[in-house]
Amino acid sequence: MTDATSSSTDETAPLEPAVDETTIDAAADNAAAEPTTDDAPADAAEETPAENAPAEEAPAEDAPADEAPAAETPAPATPAPPVPSPSRIPLPKPPAQRAAVTPIVTAPAESFGRVEDDGTVSVREGESWRVVGQYPDGTPAEALAYFERKYADLAGEVTLLETRHLGGGASASDLRATSKAVRERVVGAAAVGDLAALEARLTALDAALSEASAEEAQAQREAVDGAIAERTALVERIEAIAARDPKTIQWKQTSADVTALFEQWQSHQATGPRLPKGTSQQLWKRFRDARATLDKHRREFYAGLDEQHKSARDAKARLVERAEALAGKGEDGIGAYRTLLDEWKVSGRAGKKVDDALWARFKAAGDALYAARAEREQADAEESREKIEAKRALLVEAAAVPKEKETAKARTLLTRIQRAWDEIGRIYPREAERALDDDLRKIEQGVKSREDADWKSNNPETKARQNDMTQQLRDAIAGLEADLAGAEASKDKRAIAKATEALEARKGWLKALGG
Length: 515
Prior knowledge:
Layout: E1 4-6, E2 11-13, H1 21-31, E3 36-37, E4 48-49, E5 54-56, E6 68-70, E7 73-75, E8 78-80, E9 91-92, E10 113-115, E11 120-125, E12 128-134, H2 140-167, H3 172-186, H4 195-242, H5 251-271, H6 277-325, H7 334-345, H8 352-398, H9 407-424, H10 430-458, H11 460-490, H12 493-512
Parallel strand pairs: 5-8
Antiparallel strand pairs: 1-2, 2-4, 3-9, 6-7, 10-11, 11-12
Helix pairs in contact: 2-3, 2-4, 3-4, 4-5, 4-6, 6-7, 6-8, 8-9, 8-10, 9-10, 11-12
């Protein structure tokens, strides 16, 4: 097989081997009649000037390569070693030299390709023809089919670009770069087909991609602006935390908040759009400085807290020792233990583990004291059963006090019951004693109320004032009766009504005073 020669550029290049089944079958038929070669058709990939281009030919020692027509002028070619390929099959050896012949069109007039009798294939570009390569060892139909497949591959690439653009998801900038590479392969391609239509489709696609690239650039700018705003918000939040008074900060929660902000920053940096270097560095410096300030304050806080814990630990250890020393006093040590408990409450914290351990010892010392009191109260409760029955019996006897008509006798009876009550003594539990005392107190209040009433009625001063007011009322009643008689004589209704009303009021007052 010989070099492909381009009429448009006057350059040739070795063609790629054809491995399709049609070519293999045709080569097998020709191999039975003539000696075989290792040649196969190849694309015009890298072109060189026609007068210096080496021709790919069969391994015949002295056989010159066929001349390829270039601009209607034959050009000699120098021999070139065969290109090895495992897919090649033996093909007939080409003749030693072929003369330029009149082109033979093997396709309809509207076709974009033609094949000459020496296997030279050309493609129609406008009103001219351009040589795309040679296929000397097959039929014209096979030659055209081979280069039409090359066109189909290029058309497939263009269609894929259009599909990726319409389907979305691919970057318009990336597609423009791919389109440029495809255009370079289409222009001057060693293929048979409507290459101008492919170029027109690529031109239309480039225009659409240019518009999409502008939209992508605008969206990218908006995304960057949004990302800057989000990172700025993160910076402002951590700066606000860093500006707080370290003494008012709850460091456990604050440390968790700062960690969450840092994780948001890392996530945003990993998944968000890339920010301009200057802006990104400026925001990170602010974030890093605020974080460093908080870290410094946190270390200072915990350093001071360690000192406080040490002081509180020593103080509480001394309180524990004093509380444990009260164990020998039993119930009598409860008062001193309560004082120690007040000191414990204001001694501060010594750390959770240390606090828990010291508190367990302190509480155990107090429990021992209160256990001693509980034992004593239990013993007292056993002893109080008879006392409770005795006081209940006195309450039954005291029920006769309110029934006594004479206040003096009621007081004498109550006094005797009260003395017997006191001689019985205290009762445990205290709740039972309070219930019995409340019942007796009700009787005592009833007697006292009667005594107060008797005192008021028998008080000499009260009686004197009462007698004086009684006499005044009697005098007033006599005068009003006289006025009423005169009004009745004169038949003055108004005077009669007024005198009658005043007279009834005075009589009511006199009756209330017992007169």
